[in-house]
């Protein structure tokens, strides 16, 4: 049993079996309660592995009229070089102002509803209303906007295809206007300079305005050839004994050429099975519930972290890992990759499809158990783990 009773209560102690000792303080007991597997790691953890967890609760929050935004980038979580994330809230009517950036932008709607707009390089317009469970992808450099709708605006997770992204250094329409000579603006648009008297003196970033009318009134010009939004929760999930998985990448959402994702639900007691990803690092966002993950880094190194809603997790390329639901409610999280496709390798499927006498020679496990391993991939498991049950 690798979760001793000393860890379970409201006063967890750094004790595992006959190892460790109590902590007389000073201590941050609130943190200790959230990080039981860090305070008293499983016996199997060993060696130095970089930090693989950062909570949005520990990020600077930029409060603006109408909303807020906070980010987890490689500045907060240095190992996370491939992707960065932003958690943003917009009240009804509030706008994340018209802007663009160097990075591709993938986003998942966590709450409420929003209107998104974009224009592509062919001069074609995209506009859509998205709800909780929908996502979007805007390719690098495409200008876009996000606006909260009735009744209560929205919250969404943005994921950018570079760990060094900064939400504070995007290209904003108001910022450019404020830093271009008015005579040039007037010449560019064919307007008198007096028409520019009221432009903002500095960036807006997030600001309140009127809730827009019906979407058909927002359609202008030719429509974009491909959709930049996708209804992820409308996708029929792959159901297995311990939960569900929905995968979205460029195969079913062609616009999303640089970010692939899986939305995973794990029931209490269930396990996102031991696996790794052959193509990329994994950036995780925890939506509901509680989990722990152990990452295996080769060279005898392994480290375990605890996660809950609002946390970011990270798995460097090819490192083995599992995610276990350690709470009493459904665990929901997103796995994201800087890749055009989702890919994972199941430890169990690999063993099932390898000559069983060869596997047995390595692990000394009863051949009948190896013969009974499922040959299909079952990404979320619910299994008994104790003898005699
Ligand atoms: Mn953006
Ligand atoms: Mn994974």
Record keyword descriptors for this entry.
7-stranded antiparallel beta sheet; disordered N terminus; binds manganese (II) ion; 389 residues; 11% helix; mainly beta; Jelly Rolls; 3 domains; 12-stranded antiparallel beta sheet; 7 helices
Give the distinct bound molecules: manganese (II) ion
Say which CATH homologous superfamily of the largest domain is assigned.
Jelly Rolls
Instruction: Report on the biggest sheet.
Output: 12 strands, antiparallel
Helix content: 10-25%
Secondary-structure content class: mainly beta
| β-strand amount | 35-45%
Task: Provide the CATH architecture of the largest domain.
Answer: Sandwich
Broad shape: elongated
Span between termini: 15 Å
Unreliable residue runs: 1-7
Mean pLDDT: 95
Characterization of the model:
With 389 residues, this protein is mainly β. It has 3 domains: 1-9 and 16-25 and 36-45, no CATH class; 56-230, Jelly Rolls, CATH 2.60.120.10; 235-346, Sandwich (Jelly Rolls). It has 7 helices and 27 strands. Bound molecules: manganese (II) ion (2 copies). Residues 275, 277, 282, 315, 321, 335, 344 line the site of one manganese (II) ion. The site of one manganese (II) ion (MN) has 5 residues, from loops.
């Amino acid at each position: 049993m690798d979760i001793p009773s000393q860890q379970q209560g409201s006063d967890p102690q750094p004790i595992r079996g006959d190892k460790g000792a109590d902590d007389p303080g000073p201590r941050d007991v609130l943190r200790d309660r959230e990080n039981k597997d860090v305070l008293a790691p499983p016996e199997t953890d060993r060696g130095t592995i970089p930090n693989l967890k950062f909570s949005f609760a520990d990020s600077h929050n930029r409060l603006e009229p109408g909303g807020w935004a906070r980010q987890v980038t490689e500045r907060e979580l240095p190992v996370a070089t491939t992707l960065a994330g932003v958690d943003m809230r917009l009240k009804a009517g509030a706008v994340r102002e018209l802007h663009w950036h160097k990075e591709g932008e993938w986003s998942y709607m966590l709450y409420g509803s929003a209107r998104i707009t974009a224009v592509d390089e062919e001069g074609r317009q995209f506009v859509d209303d998205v709800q909780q469970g929908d996502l979007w992808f805007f390719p690098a450099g495409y200008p876009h906007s996000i606006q909260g709708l009735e009744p209560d605006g929205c919250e969404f997770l943005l994921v950018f295809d570079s760990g060094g992204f900064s939400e504070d250094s995007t290209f904003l329409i108001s910022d450019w206007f404020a830093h271009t000579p008015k005579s040039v603006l007037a010449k560019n648009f064919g307007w008198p300079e007096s028409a520019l008297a009221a432009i903002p003196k500095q960036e807006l970033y997030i600001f309140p305005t009127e809730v827009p009318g019906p979407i058909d009134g927002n359609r202008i010009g030719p429509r974009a050839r491909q959709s930049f939004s996708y209804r992820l929760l409308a996708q029929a999930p792959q159901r297995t004994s311990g939960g569900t998985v929905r995968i979205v990448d460029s195969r079913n959402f062609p616009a999303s050429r640089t970010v692939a994702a899986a939305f995973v639900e794990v029931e209490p007691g269930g396990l996102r099975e031991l696996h790794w990803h052959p193509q990329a690092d994994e950036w995780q966002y925890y939506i509901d519930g509680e989990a722990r993950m152990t990452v295996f880094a080769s060279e005898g190194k392994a480290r375990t972290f605890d996660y809950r809603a609002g946390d970011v997790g990270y798995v460097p390329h090819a490192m083995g890992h599992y995610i276990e639901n350690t709470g009493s409610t459904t665990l929901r999280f997103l796995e994201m990759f800087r890749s055009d496709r989702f890919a994972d390798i199941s430890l169990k499927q690999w063993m099932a499809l390898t000559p069983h006498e060869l596997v047995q020679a390595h692990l000394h496990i009863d051949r009948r158990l190896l013969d009974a391993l499922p040959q299909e991939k079952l990404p979320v498991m619910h299994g008994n783990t104790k003898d005699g049950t």
